[in-house]
Predict the 3D structure of the following.
Amino acid sequence: MHISKITTKGQVTIPADVRHRAQLQVGDLLSFEVDGDRIITRKIKPQTDEYLDALPATMQEWLSDEDEEAWHDL
């Protein structure tokens, strides 16, 4: 069991062993859920959307100077 103290600003240090085992990195997002006297913390995994990731590659046809001139005032 690992123990941390809450600071006056409400911050808690996650022990290094816990961070390592949970594969937490600087900048990771965590969610918190309260269940009675328990606090459940989960790492939020970034969502990937294959469609949205592939979209920029399909938009290359719209990058011509003619398109820019035709649509510049939108």
About this structure: DSSP finds three helices and two strands in the chain.
